[in-house]
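Tokens as discussed.
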């Protein structure tokens, strides 16, 4: 009977130790994420907005050393799509929520880019028609 009680206490001790290790791993991960760039506001690169298009496909608006770029991001590749007007994305004061995310203007900017690309295509077709 004594051996069975010792085995149960040993099992409970192992379970408590395992739960403590899991808790410490979770807490350390949370702390590291808050202190090392998970907010998107560190260094010279700031993520202003993002739009998930599908599995492993995202459009990102990023400020990199004062320039604002629209980037296409997949699991294998990052491509610069266009350089945007920095005036459309004012520099945050650091007290804004959501890590400086400018959620309202992404769709407007994307719409302007789409219109600009169709305008450019129409202009090229018109130039070709004149030749």
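Sequence:
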């Amino acid at each position: 009977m004594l051996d069975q009680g010792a085995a149960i206490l040993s099992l409970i001790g192992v379970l408590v130790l395992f739960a403590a290790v899991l808790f410490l791993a979770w807490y350390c991960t949370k702390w590291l994420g808050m202190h090392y760039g998970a907010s998107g506001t560190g260094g010279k690169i700031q993520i202003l907005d993002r739009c998930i298009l599908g599995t492993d496909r995202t459009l990102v608006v990023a400020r990199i050393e004062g320039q604002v770029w629209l980037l296409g991001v997949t699991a294998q590749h990052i491509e610069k799509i266009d350089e945007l007007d920095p005036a459309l994305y004012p520099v945050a004061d650091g007290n804004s929520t959501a890590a400086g995310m400018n959620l309202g203007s992404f769709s407007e900017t994307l719409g302007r880019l789409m219109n600009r690309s169709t305008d450019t295509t129409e202009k090229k077709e018109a130039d070709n028609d004149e030749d």
